[in-house]
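Researcher: Re-running this chain for the archive, since the previous output was lost when a drive failed. Same request as before.
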Amino acid sequence: MTNVTNGQNIVNLTAESIAASAKAAGKGGLPPVHLWNPEFCGDLDMRIARDGTWFYLGTPIGRKELVRLFSTIIRKDGDDYFLVTPVEKVGIKVDDAPFVAVDYEVSDPGPDQTLMFETNVGDFATAGPDNPIRVERDPDSGEPSPYVLIRANLEALIDRKSFYRLVDIGIHEDYEGVSWFGLRSSGQFFPIIPSADLQ
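Model: Regenerated structure tokens:
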């Protein structure tokens, strides 16, 4: 891993670049990170833990505004995560997913319902064809890890309390010729576990 020299200056420059980029993107808009192709500057000692906590140089970043700012310029290229501005691209480590879905709301409960998720950094996404829900199961323990796509190819890990609430509104439905237990949102069924595995 290549470390960025003078990392604190990179962090400060990045924060300033984000503010300028967010303003240029328009009120309430996200910076167009997918359009930016700056030179790679190296890896920054920044990590997002599985619970959504951001660390810089091993210390949690306490300023929510700064975390929110950084969260607007995350990009995933292949399996790697970066903070990207028009003039710099730095690698960061993500333990699981870059966001955590900490809550959700159900609209129009029933077959036509929608599930709108809120992340730990204030993003919102309605599950559907463009924002699918998926569940990975640990091959040893069978423990589920549920995710919802937030934007581009950036997912949020759905936190435990929200997942338990989702299970309460789950239904059984045929999916690819097999009965599955899962969730409906925006007219789409998202399988969680084969019905037979719940017996």
